[in-house]
Amino acid sequence: MNRQKPTENINELTREFLKKGGLSSQRQGFETLWCLTDEKGRGTAREINLRPGLKMVVVDCQPDEGLAMDMEIQDSPLEFNFFVSGMTQSTVIQSRSKKENFVVGKGQTCMGYYRKSCCAIQPIGKEPLCVLNILMLPQLLIALVEDESYRIPADFRSIVEGVGEKTCYRLGAMTASMHMAIHQILNCPYQGLTRRIYLEGLALELIAHLIAEDIQPKAPPALRPADREKISHAREIISRDLENPPTLLELARLVGLSHTKLNRGFREIYGTTVFGYLRKIRLEQAKLLLEEQRMSVTEAAFSVGYNSLPSFSTAFSRHFGLKPIMCIKNSPRTSKGAILL
């Protein structure tokens, strides 16, 4: 049997779920509009493919009392749900001995993961149901958080790191920032490609707001001795060639660290980022060249890797509190005929 790709799984999961609810579909570019049939209620569910592994489903309907949707889930995406109005009851069965029921309603959020489960959702009451659902593959969140997965709540961290097997969910309250982002989504003024980019940005913003509610300030894990050696090696590399240093990504690759960990390590050890450290030693070297070797300002700027004299002068003045030409004028070795510029 051929194994489906993760992006195919997330698409099939959404479509199977909506079809089981009795909705019919109409494709509109990167969006699919699902409509409730008369016997199930009135309204729509708009499925929006934002990028591989990330989609949004906007449910806006007046369901009948008999409407219910259920399905079996194998490879679950991460779900981020925001209830603008209405209420639903969800039943999740992961084994004979593990069955959970929970209710989510207006003004609430639900972050969930339902791997290898049977799920059923049923609207409660007569209030119109307006829910924004964001579905994301764990692999995509891994790419976004990189080395900072330790900041994610513990029960979801194992999922993001690819070792989570248990169903878990977390309920919360919508904040003013979430309400504002959802209002912008529901009233998106754009079409086509611009609409897709706009909605993706807001979807990621909502996920950030939701995760931020659960994140407690934590110190990053201590750097290992091996990592400290790699960071020290990175410092030596950029110090050797100030004129043509490697980019951050190239430097990270050379020493065997991710660029995030490399920057974090520089902050911890040297008190600044890789770029901040490079700028500091460039300016210190330029100052030494001006004072000791009688180089002109232009020569000093180019010798340490600056391609723009105004940029160099501005950075130098901010760092040392004086213009670079003053270093030449104040140097005891400056001769009467020295070239200043």
Percent helix, as a range, is 40-55%
Shape: elongated
Q: What is the helix/strand order?
A: HEEEEEEEEEEEHHEHHHHHHHHH
CATH architecture identity of the largest domain: Sandwich
Number of helices: 12
Q: Regarding CATH, which class of the largest domain?
A: Mainly Beta
Output the CATH topology of the largest domain.
Jelly Rolls
- The secondary structure category is alpha+beta
Count of all domains: 2
What does the main sheet amount to? 8 strands, antiparallel
Low-confidence stretches: 1-8, 334-341
Number of strands: 12
Strand content: 25-35%
- Major sheet: arrangement of strands: 1-2-3-4-11-6-9-12
- Under CATH, the homologous superfamily of the largest domain reads Jelly Rolls
What is the rounded distance between the termini? 73 Å
What integer is the average pLDDT? 79
The radius of gyration is: 28 Å
Q: Quick gist of this model?
A:
43% of the residues lie in helices and 26% in strands.
Features:
341 residues; alpha+beta; Jelly Rolls; Arc Repressor Mutant, subunit A; 2 domains; 8-stranded antiparallel sheet; 4-stranded antiparallel sheet; 12 helices; 12 strands; 43% helix; disordered N terminus; disordered C terminus
